[in-house]
Amino acid sequence: MVALGPGDALAQDAGGTVSVSGITLSSDTVGIGDLIDLSLVIDLAPGTIVFLPDSLDTSDFESFGPVHWSSDTAVSDGVRLTVTYPLIAFQVGRIAVPEFPIFAARESEAKRANFAEEGEHVGNWTSFREAPSATPSARMLMIPAQPLWVRSILDLEDASSGVQPQPIADVLGAARHWPATILVALFGTLLLWVIVTSGNALRAAYHTRPRPPADPRLAALEEFDALLAEGLDRGDDVRSFYTKASNITRRFVEVFDKRWGPAHTSTELMNDLETAATLPDFARITKVNNLSEVMGHAEEVKFGGERPTADEAKHEVRAVRSWVAETESP
């Protein structure tokens, strides 16, 4: 293949030419990472087709997309292509879009090689590079390098003196980005509110959770201990003392069978307990010999004139407590 300069011409079947002009950059100074377009104009004579690189990738640039072009009818029935390469600069300082080749060939050869379809002015670059010999008339045109300046994101003063971390005054002072600071504060407040509200809800749920039912035996023992701790200071307290002891015993016994409730007299209750203690279903109930005697005496105190001493009353209540302690909860 023969290399031609950008102003040179290529003779074609119809006696026309191919020429390149208007090679420009959209800006001669850009910031690093900015988008820049490399544009050029190609005039094609009738019967001519051009092959363009799909993209331009170098160490200093990266393609922002594939090459694109538009066509317009030129003088002498030719075609004028306006070609654009979108690029992004990734190097700082004076750099250049390097030179790169394009190729022009007879349209008839490109069609026979299936490098282009009828009516196309730009052939398939990949297919052409894989088999360039299929278009013997192909000639290379070099697009010259295009220089530009890429600015750094750092100020000249920072770059010359070296980059240092900002002092606390610059980070926390009045020069901060206030909209972002306010937004962060609002989100922080909202997060704190969610945490506090959730914590209060969990705490309330913990304190209001259903309590497991207390063991009837342990509950009765605690009540007996509290009753004995109260003591008996006056003779008039004996009846109340026995009444409380009787009620504690009844509540415990009623757990075994709901029929043994307040409707039963102490005598009926003791008779039922003595019978139940011999049955397999009530094997947990201890023999009620001493209990029957104490409960009978309690009836005499509550409804009669019997008034035992404080020591005798406590002794009998301790006996009932011992019976509860020996009996297993249902």
**Corresponding CATH architecture of the largest domain:** Sandwich
Give the overall average pLDDT. 78
Structural class: alpha+beta
The CATH topology of the largest domain comes to: Immunoglobulin-like
Oligomeric form of this entry? Answer: single chain
The best one-word shape is: rod-shaped
Helices, by number, come to: 10
Report the C-alpha radius of gyration, rounded.
53 Å
CATH class of the largest domain: Mainly Beta
Strand content: 15-25%
Order of helices and strands: EEEEEEEEEEHHEEHHHHHHHH
Summarize the structure.
The chain has 330 residues and is α+β, with helices and mostly antiparallel strands. It is built from ten helices and twelve strands.
Describe this structure in words.
This protein has ten helices and twelve strands. It has 330 residues and is an alpha+beta fold. The longest helix has 30 residues, at 178-207. The protein is rod-shaped. Mean pLDDT is 78; it is low at 1-16.
List keywords for this structure.
rod-shaped, 2 domains, five-stranded antiparallel β-sheet, single chain, 330 residues, 12 strands, disordered N terminus, Immunoglobulin-like
